[in-house]
Fold this protein.
Amino acid sequence: MDYLMCAVLVGAGATAVMDLWAIARKPLLGIPLPNYGLVGRWFAYMARGRFRHDAIAAAPPVRRERLIGWTAHYLIGMAFAAVLLAVWGLDWVRHPTLGPALIVGIGSVAAPFLVMQPGMGAGIAASRTPRPAAARVQSLVTHAIFGLGLYAAGWVTRWLYPF
């Protein structure tokens, strides 16, 4: 139970940090907020047996796609926190260190590069987008921020959930 609770707390906290970064980069860098409704659309179509799209934005919208997308976003963050705890154990939450959090955070960029972006029609590592290099850099920075969020959420979890 401790493992599950820590994965939920660390993952949700790290994902919230990533979302705060997305909010901050809009006025700082002029980068629009992510559209998790499109992620929800992609997941909804997967439930219907369609895993790849030429352009997910061109697919007809589905009911509650934003809710599905935001839920998936946070569940995926929790899953990556679970990976962190599976590899480094609950002792990591008792004494969080930056290295493992950054390894998992930056390593998590493989999921959008190799699964999500190709499935949604953006190509491997955003190769089919108008500015692939810029998209890749933004993904790497965002996932590094997620790693920092894992570290910060580990410290908060240590205080919130004594075990």
